[in-house]
């Protein structure tokens, strides 16, 4: 190392070293201050974290305690729910039954059962129960059959006697007693005289709302009550004969689960209005029910004047007159006009035998009528014709609470056009008279045709020929169905197959045909 240089070099070098040392001290001082600030901040943050940790530990303990309580409650609820499910399943399978509701005014048991009276009723009940259980498959041993038949027994017995099915009304009464006694769950109920009382018993009210007519408030809701009962596995309705049930089924079939639980029991061929709803049909005609409707085999309209052939006037030998030839001719004429019984019996073979009520009253073994001797031609007796007296106009007929429907004047040509449409080509009444059909494309009737105004009137006229299910109790202002027979003209029902009951016609109405359906 060179020894050169003066003292000032060393002084300069010392000053430089001192300057570096001061700078290092400042750095260390700044570092210490920074470290102190950082440490203080960390210490405060640590205290906050510790406080939060204690709070979280408390929350954790509380949550753990609550979770245990919830777990215990959940276990209790699961146990309770299991018991409830078990009870519910037990109640669902406890006393399951199938209910059979029959409109006895239309679905008729076979004549062989009814003629056997009490025993026939029991046999019919056993046969009906066996037939229904045969449709239940594996559940037949655990299910009960409840059957209720509703009918107007007085009207039904009269109709069956007019049909010739029933000899004595007591047979039908004994049959109903036997049917009721056959099984504890079977009843044959006489609903009495009235408009569609059997229908109302089966269908019941649409809702529980109060009505103005007292009789409506006491009707049993058989159908809907059973459908709301979970133990009712199936509902069988004996209504195949009556198209008036179609709107009722349409209402029930809004619920698909309900529609699968309903079957129509067929006696007469099921009417098209019911088959169009898609309801299942069960036919038991082979064993239980008759397939023919009752007809009135007694002529309702008779000619009250007996024919002249029933009046017997027998002549006797007349002594020959001794007067002029004119008198002789008169006597001969009188003699030829009244024949003896032998002459009448041996007359021309083409003479038809008398078949009137008066002729039938005279039997083959009856004594002949007294002989009347007429010596001369009887003079015609003239009776003065009295002037026809004006009869007082009877008061207008009032069918019930709703009154008379407004008459519909229809064009015959338009009516013929509508009647020509058959099957699926037939126009939908609800669509054209009430607005768009609720069934839409599922409806089996025509919706796309555009009828004229006269054809719309014709549709309304034909719809009016179908009885309303509520009759005079109907509260629908724009109801398209009839509430009394619209076919009565001059005291005679002109419809050959009238669907209305006798009470839906004015008193003393006569029917045009001999086979007026019951």
UniProtKB/TrEMBL annotation:
> Mind listing the UniProt keywords for this protein, alphabetically?
Coiled coil, Metal-binding, Zinc, Zinc-finger
Coiled coil found in the keyword field: yes
PROSITE patterns per UniProt = ZF_C3H1
**Which residue numbers delimit the C3H1-type Zn fingers?**
422-450
Which residue stretches belong to region Disordered? 310-332, 360-405
Q: Name one GO molecular function term.
A: zinc ion binding
- Coiled-coil positions are 46-87
Instruction: Note the superkingdom of the native organism.
Output: Eukaryota
* UniProt domain C3H1-type: residue ranges: 422-450
UniProt keyword annotation of Transferase present = no
Matching entries from Pfam families are given as: DUF7923, zf-CCCH_12, zf-CCCH_tandem
Q: InterPro entries recorded for this chain?
A: DUF7923 (IPR057683), Znf-CCCH_tandem (IPR057654), Znf_CCCH (IPR000571)
Q: Where is the composition biased (Low complexity)?
A: 321-332
- The region annotated as signal peptide is none
Identification of the protein by name? C3H1-type domain-containing protein
Which species does the entry assign this protein to? Podospora didyma
């Amino acid at each position: 190392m060179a020894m050169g240089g003066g003292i000032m070099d060393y002084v300069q070098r010392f000053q430089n070293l001192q300057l570096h040392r001061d700078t290092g001290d400042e750095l260390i001082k700044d570092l210490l201050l920074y470290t102190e600030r950082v440490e203080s901040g960390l210490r405060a943050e640590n205290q906050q974290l510790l406080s939060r940790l204690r709070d979280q530990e408390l929350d954790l303990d509380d949550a753990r305690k609550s979770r245990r309580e919830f777990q215990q409650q959940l276990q209790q609820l699961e146990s309770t729910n299991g018991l409830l499910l078990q009870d519910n399943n037990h109640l669902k399978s406890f006393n399951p039954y199938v209910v059979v509701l029959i409109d006895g005014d239309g679905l008729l048991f076979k004549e062989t059962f009814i003629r056997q009276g009490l025993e026939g009723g029991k046999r019919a009940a056993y046969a009906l129960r066996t037939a229904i259980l045969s449709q239940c498959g594996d559940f037949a041993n655990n299910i009960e059959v409840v059957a209720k038949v509703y009918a107007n027994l007085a009207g039904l017995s009269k109709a069956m006697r007019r049909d010739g099915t029933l000899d004595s009304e007591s047979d039908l009464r004994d049959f109903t007693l036997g049917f009721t006694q056959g099984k504890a769950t079977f009843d044959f109920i006489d609903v009495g005289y009235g408009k569609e009382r059997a229908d109302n018993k089966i269908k019941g009210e649409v809702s529980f709302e109060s009505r103005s007519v007292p009789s409506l408030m006491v009707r049993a809701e058989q159908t809907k009550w059973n459908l709301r009962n979970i133990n009712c596995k199936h509902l069988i309705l004996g209504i195949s004969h009556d198209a008036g049930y179609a709107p009722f089924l349409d209402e029930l079939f809004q619920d698909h689960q309900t529609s699968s639980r309903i079957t129509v029991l067929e006696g007469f061929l099921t009417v098209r209005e019911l088959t169009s709803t898609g309801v299942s049909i069960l036919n038991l005609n082979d064993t239980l029910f008759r397939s023919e409707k009752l007809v009135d085999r007694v002529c309702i309209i008779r000619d009250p004047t007996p024919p002249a052939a029933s009046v017997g006037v027998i002549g006797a030998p007349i002594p020959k007159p001794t007067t002029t030839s004119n008198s002789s001719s008169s006597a001969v004429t009188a003699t030829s006009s009244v024949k003896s019984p032998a002459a009448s019996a041996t007359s021309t073979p083409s003479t038809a035998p008398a078949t009137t009520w008066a002729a039938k009253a005279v039997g083959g073994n009856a004594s002949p009528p007294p002989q009347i001797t007429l010596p001369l031609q009887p003079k015609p007796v003239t009776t003065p014709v009295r002037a026809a007296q004006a009869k007082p106009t009877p008061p207008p007929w009032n069918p019930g609470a709703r009154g008379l429907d407004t008459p519909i004047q229809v064009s015959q040509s338009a009516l013929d056009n509508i009647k020509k449409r058959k099957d699926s080509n037939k126009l939908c009444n609800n669509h054209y008279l009430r607005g768009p059909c609720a069934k839409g494309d599922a409806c089996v009737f025509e919706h796309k045709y555009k009828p004229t105004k006269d054809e719309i009137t014709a549709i309304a006229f034909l719809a009016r020929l179908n009885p309303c299910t509520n009759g005079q109790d109907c509260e629908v202002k724009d109801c398209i169905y009839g509430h009394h027979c619209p076919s009565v003209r001059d005291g005679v029902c002109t419809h050959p197959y009238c669907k209305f009951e006798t009470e839906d016609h004015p008193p003393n109405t006569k029917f045009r045909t001999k086979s007026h359906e019951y």
